[in-house]
Amino acid sequence: MAALRRLIAGASKPSSLIPPTFLISHRGIASKLFVGGLSFYTTEKGLSDAFSQYGQVMEAKIVMDRVSDRSKGFGFVTYASEDEAEKAIAEMNGKDLNGRVIFVDYAKPKHNFGGGMPIARGPPDSVDRVHFQDIVSEN
């Protein structure tokens, strides 16, 4: 964090500043890895153990289906540093884990598209119904 403050304080022009929130959030994302192609039998402990040989694993999370409570076949591994994450990508991408070839890359930011329940649209407007009736009655 101190290095970030020095970088921002040392910038000569305000236009050359990178927003500090971008740097902080980028750093957080850079040490979080997406792991795809996981076997349904891979556990969070197994995922953590496999990746811990490349650095300090802060968290290993497998995404589960809410209905079946089964793995969706992908997860995330968070490292304490970016260097450890880079090393894990280089070593684990394309490797076999529990009988499946996995692929590893940096996690992308989560986008919230409104989520939750879909919006009910309701019946069409009365203008559409009138227009449709006009077309039918002309024939």
From TrEMBL:
Residues 31-109 form the RRM domain. It holds the Pfam family RRM_1. InterPro entries: Nucleotide-bd_a/b_plait_sf, RBD_domain_sf, RRM_dom, SLIRP/GR-RBP-like. SUPFAM superfamilies: RNA-binding domain, RBD. PROSITE patterns: RRM. The keyword Oxidoreductase does not apply. The keyword RNA-binding applies. Keywords: RNA-binding. This is RRM domain-containing protein.
